[in-house]
Amino acid sequence: MKVAVIGASGYTGVELLRIVHRHPRLELAAATSEQRAGLVIGESFPALREIVDLKFEALDAADLATRVDAAFVCLPHSTAAPAVAALRAGGVTVIDISADFRLRDRAVYETWYGPHKAPEIFGQGVYGLPEFYAEALVGAKLVAAPGCYPTSALLPMLPFLRAGVVETDPIIIDAKSGASGAGRTVAEGYLLTELDDNFYAYKVAAHRHIPEIEQEASLVAGEPVRVTFVPHLLPTIRGIGTSVYLRLKAPLTTAEAREILLDAYGAAPFVRVLPEGETPKLAHVRGSNFCDVGVVVDEHAGTLIGLAAIDNLVKGAVGQGVQCLNLSQGWGETEGLEEAPFSP
């Protein structure tokens, strides 16, 4: 299958080039970058030297639609929609990494992101969380890959909401991300001198991934879910570690809670349920499409604590997107994604 990577010079785009290169069924036919158009990819990013010899090109969606079968759109939120619409009009299967098609309510989207720039196809995307939407992804032509924070929050939380063992309000999510989650943003807070040996919360209870988390949690729970979400920035490059705090409806042991996770993810190739007493670590998932999940029940407080770790660029973005493309095409779900985590 010939594929294009739109916005290929960002962190997620470069990570996707690496994955596409090793995927047995994909051929990279085009990679776009407005800032680097005309430059050889392997020279612009020396890690890909003698691996990817194409040149970056400026985005022309109508032209690309005549040359590729599928496209991964790695453009910023609110700017991806026009490219997605043009590619879909040309019959291209699209995996969108932005938030432009994740939400089901257009008014909610516009509250958090502003006017939608392709309203004619709003609502047509399949939410790309394979562990819960595998059937819907089969044959999908437009996939909205989840955000990195929602992925790390939903995977340790949804099984307990589906089982009905926890309250839907309040739910507290504490998440910590490496700096690559912000993309190639040039801002004071991402300077080495500001971030190194530092750690802080940002957009407390005001992050735009809140409605996405609440949307998916409410669908699984069958009733409205409300969350308090506090993201933090770590002085690391990759990875997200997330803790989700849920109130139990009735007493439950850690062993019983872990069985709920095993029932949910026993057949999921990229979710690893950790042994009781072990907690997820960024170093154990970095560079991979794995999400490690664990659970601890605080019986004294009646609280269930769901834990997760992912690589924000892989399972939190383009690796998950490739997983969705595999499912949409009827291929093996793990194809191109078997890379073991970096260690150390």
Provide structural commentary.
The chain is 31% helix and 21% strand. It is of the alpha/beta class. The strands form two sheets. Strands 8-9-7-10-13-12-11 form a seven-stranded mixed β-sheet. Strand 1 (2-6), helix 1 and strand 2 (27-32) form a beta-alpha-beta unit. The relative contact order is 0.15. The mean pLDDT is 96.
Question: How are the strands of the biggest sheet laid out side by side?
Answer: 8-9-7-10-13-12-11
The amount of helix comes to 25-40%
Distance between the termini: 34 Å
Number of helices: 11
- Sheet/helix structural class: alpha/beta
- CATH topology of the largest domain, anyone? Dihydrodipicolinate Reductase, domain 2
Low-confidence stretches: none
Strand content: 15-25%
Largest sheet: 7 strands, mixed
Q: Would you list the SSEs in sequence order as H and E? A: EHEHHEHEHEHEHEHEHEEHEEEH
Total beta-strand segments: 13
Would you state the CATH class of the largest domain?
A: Alpha Beta
* Number of individual domains: 2
CATH architecture of the largest domain: 2-Layer Sandwich
Spatial extent as radius of gyration: 20 Å
Shape: globular
Average pLDDT rating: 96
Oligomer: single chain
Question: Looking at this structure, what is the CATH superfamily of the largest domain?
Answer: Dihydrodipicolinate Reductase, domain 2
Summarize the structure.
The protein contains eleven helices and 13 strands. Helix content is 31%, strand content 21%. The model has no long low-confidence stretch (mean pLDDT 96).
